[in-house]
Amino acid sequence: MDTWDYAPAPESAALANVAPTYRPFVDGAFVDGGGEALKTVNPATEEVLAEVGTASEQDVDRAVAAARRAFEKTWGPMPGAERAKYLYRIARIVAERSRELAVLETLDNGKPIRESRDVDVPTASAHLFHHAGWADKLGYAGLGPDPRPVGVVGAVIPWNFPLLMAVWKIAPALACGNTIVLKPAETTPLTALVLAEIAAEAGLPAGVLNVLPGAGGVGAALVAHPGLDKVAFTGSTDVGKEIQRTLAGTGRRLTLELGGKAANIVYDDAAIDQAVEGVVDGIFFNQGHVCCAGSRLLVQESIAEEFSELLLRRVETLRVGDPLDKNTDVGAINSRAQLDRIVDLAAAGDAEGAERWTSSCPLPERGLYFPPTVFSGVEQTMRVAREEIFGPVLSVLTFRTPEEAVAKANNTPYGLSAGIWTEKGAKAMWTARRLRAGVVWTNTFHRFDPTSPFGGYRESGFGREGGRAGLEAYLS
Ligand code: NAP
Ligand code: MG
After folding, report:
1. What spacing in Å lies between the alpha carbon of 193 and ligand 1's midpoint?
2. Residue whose CA is closest, atom 15 of ligand 1?
3. Ligand 1 binding pocket includes 156 (Cβ within 6 Å)
4. Least C-beta-crowded within 10 Å: which of 175, 271, 395, 443?
5. Ligand nearest to the CA of 18
6. In whole angstroms, what is the distance from residue 217 CA to residue 225 CA?
């Protein structure tokens, strides 16, 4: 199908105020880290954006000690209503600096500016406001009349939603009276460090929030630190299992938000055009680097042919390119390593006999990109149906009966999210009750709201983030 040509509509990179160097944030100040500096790149061009100082094991010690002091002397004893004031201030500054944060996120991560601007940053701000409101009402959360903070939290987060994942941990931790040491992902440390700057600007007492950039080793040193009371991790299932082994027997609390391989189920009575949009959003949002991405389409056999035709026609119109361009639908893949992984898993799809369709959208000449890809004729045993690709690759399977849809949807070691598309409320409820997934969306997908708990089961982890249930992880 022909599409209109769009004139370029680039957002200005200058809005991000990228500094040449960034440093770890410990005990209320930016400090020289003892680790080897890393260079963070813009995946859209592979150019170096900034040099970032990283933490050594001594810095981990210092940060945990600072968080302990703050927990005992300032933040822990502070009344909830006072803590709320700081959180509201941070939330307001995030909203005020939203344009800068959105551009910085897009530069460091590669996601389209439309998404960082309309999803990541506003949702981060909403989570801060939401949790600020809880700080003085914890006694009404249904967790006892006087719930207490857990203590010092160590948090490790991935690169796909760098600011949002940082806030998902920081906001509830601080609202509940805990202090925190956060390790952002190696390839996307910048927005977490600007968030630290914002916390300082808001007057947050020293040691309450500490940010330690670095690679996986810094994360491993942090989660193993005996000075922590709780670890909150978002990332891959393999690293999550390793952390669980490290913490076994220590009595320290742990929540894990891990991978997924969500089914998006389309019944033959669904509003077809709406379902096509939802399926496209489900897998191509954020280049498919989404733990709850709808990466397995299960479409009822009677409409499979018609649905596939409409779906491919729609996917063909997605614009892949400069993430800073406001017309871009699919941006850059965050790292060379992730691109290689997507290429390998897609090749496994070919080798196992699935049929690959690739969008003809031209890709930029430089930078890390992968075209929107759809595999049809996928069998449940194939790797593209079982493994998390974490890229813009959709696997299409079919089913005949609701029972078969549920059985196939649940045929995965994961259990994070799922989607259902049908006109019949009773059918949606029947299906949702049988799906083993932490979040089930009906006639929509990728809805994130701070009042609503998010999390998985089985290999997708345990514990919830958001809503009243999310507070439980940070209170004892
Ligand atoms: P990852 O390799 O597990 O990395 C996640 C974080 O852990 C990064 O900060 C990483 O540092 C750090 N890390 C690596 N090895 C570690 C170790 N041994 N001990 C402690 N920390 C360690 O995951 P990823 O590939 O970056 O992220 C993609 C995965 O995250 C996907 O599987 C996705 O589904 C999952 N995810 C889940 C959710 C959710 O809410 N359930 C949300 C987003 C992503 P480096 O960056 O330096 O490697
Ligand atoms: Mg980067």
Report:
1. 18
2. 216
3. yes
4. 271
5. 2
6. 12
Q: Which residue has the tokens 């410990």?
A: 26
The Å distance, Cα 87 to ligand 1 centre, comes to 26
Secondary structure letter of residue 295 according to DSSP: -
Dump strand ranges (E) for 400-452: 417-421, 439-442
Residue partners of 402: CB distance under 8 A and separation at least 6: 267, 427, 430, 431
As a CATH number, domain 13-257+456-472 is 3.40.605.10
pLDDT in the model for residue 114? 98
Task: Return the CATH class of domain 263-442.
Answer: alpha beta
Which protein residue's CA is at the shortest distance from atom 18 of ligand 1?
220
Mutate-to-test residue for ligand 1 from 41, 212, 239, highest number of ligand atoms within 8 A of CB: 239
Whether 24 and 197 have beta carbons less than 8 Å apart is answered as no
Flag residues of the chain having pLDDT under 50: none
Q: Range(s) for CATH 3.40.309.10 in the chain?
A: 263-442
Task: Note the pLDDT of residue 6.
Answer: 83
Q: Quick one: pLDDT at residue 1?
A: 53
Q: Which ligand is nearest to the CA of 288?
A: 1
Q: Which amino acid is at 282?
A: G
Which pLDDT does position 257 carry in this prediction?
97
In 3D space, the residue among 296, 261, 260, 302 whose CA is nearest the CA of residue 279 turns out to be 296
User: Could you give the residue range(s) of every CATH 3.40.605.10 domain in the chain?
Assistant: 13-257+456-472
Provide the CB-side half-sphere exposure for 7 (13 A, CA). Answer: 1
105 is catalytic: no
Residues 6+ apart with CB under 8 A from 114: 326, 328, 329
Catalytic residue, from 105, 115, 186, 257: name it.
257
